[in-house]
Amino acid sequence: MFSSITSGAVRGIDSYIMQVEVDVSDGLPGFNMVGFMSGDVKEAGARVKVALKNVGYKVPVAKITVNLSPADIRKEGIVVDLPIAVGILTATGELKEDAVEGILFLGEIGLDGDIRPIKGTLPIVTKAKSKGYKTIILPKKNAKEGAVVPGMKIVGISSLQEVIAYLSAGEMERDELIPPTKVDIKSLFTEKDIYDDKLDFSDINGQAGAKRAAEIAAAGFHHLLLVGPPGTGKSMIAKRMPTILPPLSESESMEVTSIYSVAGRMPDNKALITKRPFMSTHHMVTESALVGGGGLPRPGLISLAHRGVLFLDEMPEFSRSLIDMLRQPMEDKVVNITRNKGTYSYPADFQLVGAMNPCPCGYYPDRNKCSCLPKEIKRYLSHISGPILDRIDIVVEVPKVDIADLSSNVKRAGESSKQIRVRVMRARKIQEERFAGTKISFNSQMTPKEIEKYCKLGTIEQAFMEHTFCAMDLSARTYHKVLKLARTIADLDGAENIEKIHLMEAFSYRMSDGQYWNSREESE
User: Fold this and answer.
1) How far from the centroid of its chain's Cα atoms is residue 502's Cα?
2) 84 contacts 20 by C-beta, under 8 angstroms
3) What's the pLDDT tens digit per position in 219-247?
4) 3-state SS track over 163-230
5) How far apart, in whole angstroms, are the C-alpha atoms of residue 36 and residue 357?
6) The pTM is what?
7) 8 A C-beta contact, residue 118 and residue 79
8) At 297, is the secondary structure helix, strand, or coil?
């Protein structure tokens, strides 16, 4: 007998619907799987046979052929256990054909018949909905994740026995046997669910300039580099960046959740990722771990930081080649990984926050403490190339904290993350209205065409811009970065037009370029 069971799988961040065809016939006994698949996928056959035996259903001594369609897509790193098991039970008459019609099956089966979670639930369920499917049977630990897709009936199961009992029951009895999983999406976006209450900008004493830079970066989604000696609070500021960013929207949350689901990073029984991602890594990270890839391509840290923050501490300690791999994703907001089996694309719209010492010992240009030779400083700073610096909108010094800001006798509470976030969200709202109907959302994403339209300068401002541009010998890319940055500063001030004071502040965030990367001492 023959049966056809619907399932799904992911390829990169995308998903596709797959038909698992099972034929049980007379002939030389055997279990064959075809359909352009890798060896790890073929192992499903052995698991299914043992699992069926252990739950009391003996696999007949017959010729069993399983085909995974479409045959033109290579199946690797996917799980087809449950659809194969249901296909065998249907083909042998244990289950009726009409009992499985219109249902999509997902799940891995343990040898004891337990149903184990899979990766990529959300993108598969989303694809199933677009193809007209209404009912999905999947592992119980993935049920909440699947249930966030509106209009879908999600049935979470824990064992093969439960699947068989559910499919054997009448249409009216099924919901009583295993009630569909439901999720109230609105209830997931409470204050405690979207922000970490253990991190707050009020914890940071002093550093008004660096905190101001962080606020501007958050308002326009600009990349930020913090430069200063050890122990000045660079990491503290970076870790609190997500607390001043606006909360994820439902659509952004779905995007981030899809990436985490494909990467296998979703917590058990978690419906959605509701906090802005914050990814931090050590300088010994591999290229595939940072950018994505591997034998079976998976999202890297820059994709896991999508819609959030990627923090690189001690940035010059990373190899120059590794840092330069960020150039294309920072511009295109996507990572493309090419293999001989095809090209995989992953979203990578992240905000880069870097922290670094100005030299190997950490105290340059304070020659009372710094003993680094000019060539050592130059070699150290050269790990951050000019093209990367051009893509970082804000470079700000984080100086040594004044003792007055640390003393318990004069300690003053700084602004909280919530207070800063109010201003950031107000500036974001201005940008939302400005770019309504376009493909961009933030000032940092403006192209030269949009800059010309939205960053018009008055006579005084234009003259100041031209003079400063020539005096600082800036690149064309930096010229546009300054204008985008000034536009964000003006939005924070609620100003309709960019004024000279906004340009002056924007230029101040490029002064460190000249101090560290083009200093006279280095050129000697």
Assistant:
1) 32
2) yes
3) 999 999 999 999 999 999 999 999 999 99
4) HHHHHHCCCCCHHHHCCCECCCHHHHCCHHHHCCCCCCHHHCCCCHHHHHHHHHHHHHCCCEEEECCC
5) 51
6) 0.91
7) yes
8) coil
